[in-house]
Amino acid sequence: MGKLEEQQLQYILSSLQNIQYGSVVITVHNGEITQVDTTEKKRFPLLKSHTAKAK
Asked: Within 18-51, where are the H helices?
């Protein structure tokens, strides 16, 4: 395994370890990793005062 491949794998593993909710998308072109996209989702609990309808 070449150094570039090792760096790519380490980056992917780091992305997976550092994400709690979301996705890691690996783009491959001609058998080579060309791009890694990480999308993290942050969720906040709804407060009851915001969910109650005004009368």
From this structure: 48-51
